[in-house]
Protein: DNA internalization-related competence protein ComEC/Rec2
Amino acid sequence: MARHLILLAVSATFGVTAHSFFNVRLLTIILIFLCLLYFSVGLSVKALSFHLVIMGMFLGAASFTDHRNKTAYHETESQFIITFTDQPNIDGNSLKGFVTSEKGERLVLRHKITTELEQEKLGQFLRIGLSCPAEGTLQIPDKNRNENSFDYQRYLLRQGTHWIFKADSISFQECKVVGNPILVSIRNLRLKGITYIREHFPEESSGFVTALIFGDQTYIDEGDLNNYQRLGLVHLLAISGLHVSFLTGLLFYFGIRVGITRERMMIAILIFLPVYMLLSGASPSVVRSCLMAMLFFLLLLFKKRISAGAAIGSVYMALLFFRPNMLYDIGFQLSFAVTFSIIMSSSIFLQYPKKTTQLFIVSSICQLAALPILLFHFFEASVLGVFLNVLYVPLYSIILLPFSLISLFIHILLPSLGQPLISLLNYTFILCNEAAEAASPLPLASITFGKPPFIMMLLLVISLLGLYLAWEVSFVKSKIWCGIIIVLLLLQYNLQRFSPFGEVQIIDVGQGDSILITLPFNRGNYLIDTGGQITFPIDTWAKKRKKFNTADDIIIPLLKSKGIHQLDKLILTHPDADHMGSAKELIENFKVGEIIIGGWSEEQYRDMDFVSVARDEKMKMTVLKRGDHWVAGGAPFVVLSPYEKEENKNDSSIVLFTELGGLSWLWTGDMGEEGESELLRTFPQLQSDILKVGHHGSKTSSSTPFIEQLQPKAALISVGKDNGYGHPHRDVIGNLERNGIKVFRTDEDGSIIYKYYKSSGTFRKTLP
Structure:
């Protein structure tokens, strides 16, 4: 039964997927799957027909869900009555979270807090169930503006959310409590519990205790969370089957010990689990764990038994039928993939008598099961994590989780007795976090593979299934599949080295510049500028927990997605924050071979943070000026400017000329009209097929004589969406269009990519 349910679950997955991604590739995979069922599994034509019916049913469920996922608003509305249905999140001077409108539609709330007093009052006043009048504007969420980046718009749509509500004012004095009193009370109990932990537990451990008990990772230190993610340990901070098993086992044992009958305890647990699901945030891993436990106890109550495989198959199909879009949730994918792998490979690790060996095998199986998902979404995986999980899994499940629960309950009942326990717990978390921080920079902590193409994903999944099936029969036979997986991973790791394609990409970093050049066969990876934000002094209370940074949030994920392991050159055109403001974070978190700055600008860079980091890392720094040049992969790079010290930083920009993919390119940084005039006088024959427009298309650059001499075929403008500078200036756009020049601009097109092979290539935009 378990095997049939799992095969049906695969068919259900194909049905849901077909609604969003029906193409030749998916159809081919479905046909291969049906052939395997017929020839290898031995299913009859009647059974195959049933699988097709299941695919149709789940395709219909996905279509129905999509049909109902419509908005009642038209972007012109300004007055709403919003209800806080999820935990409000006060982050510095911003109030964020999900709310429900009077029409029952879910909205993303964004509200700016103006004073520290208002922040404190909101922290005390806000709770789930409050319904308040509000005024503001509706905004369509952004799509992904860079290649392989997170598509926030699609993510929200799959949750039934179409709008971001930017609230100008919320009438908190007119709020009233609405909604189901039981559900509201449970959710507010969770909110009170999180607040209690934040107020009474030390900062080093409060975020971890909140994550373990209530499933909220919001308050974990950003550095600690990054370390756990790099090491493949972050799953320990998500409530899963371990937590549910521990709590239900503890509750069941306690009830039996005090004299309650087994039947009544089963009923109590069936009541407790839905409540716990809400208390712990109802994430996909929590829902899966609780539903599987509820199914187990419900059948046990009626003297029935079900295998773990049948249970996970049933829960998976039920969730997918009623909420098809859960399939695209990363937590859902990881939770079911890892749990499924543990259940289906139990006969493998039970072959080994030693507990430590079993734990290592389980850790390896889990990491392998998660591998395709991690590579697809995060482009990297941890080898060291396999070994660290052997230590951290029992540490968290046997010590830290129970210790966190006990410390919280004792502190609530007897604060004086609970405080020493909290101190000891805090010290334990500090030791764990320091160990993770020490392991994080190690070579095998995190390996970047890049985003696998479709065929690589397919081969990886097939190889992993082959490994599990062979391992059950014989460890010797599994070695062949291990070898195949290693070869596939080595191929994926070195994919860029084998690629004959080159690429030029204008990265959308908002109001700033960042250009990535990758040469064929990995002969050079160059980044011109890093983008960055101009920062102003801000009060401590208004600072957000995580500060946006173009290097951490845009550039490094993009580099990893493309399988780039090192930047050969980081070229900083000039010392403006919107061009080099994220250089420090980039060289701290990504390998850079050489940093290049413009001549006569050394003094302006001398006291900058990234220079100190580069000096500590003994990183090569080079100063370029007019006449310097190099050749890489057959492509010439020539520096046309600077040629002398300039009073205007913009005119001291590095100007670079190169030839790539059959086109000539001119990168001008923020050079203005004076610099352009000097360039024309010095190089009267200068022409370029592609011009990176200077200074984000401001009126002070891209003069008519400059454009007329260059005669470019296309102009690239790196500019922030809805920027406050009025860039690009309408006169510049008009001048370019009058000269018949094709204009690409990141505010409208997202990142702009030119992919080429030898001497020909094509442009494409990220946004449609």
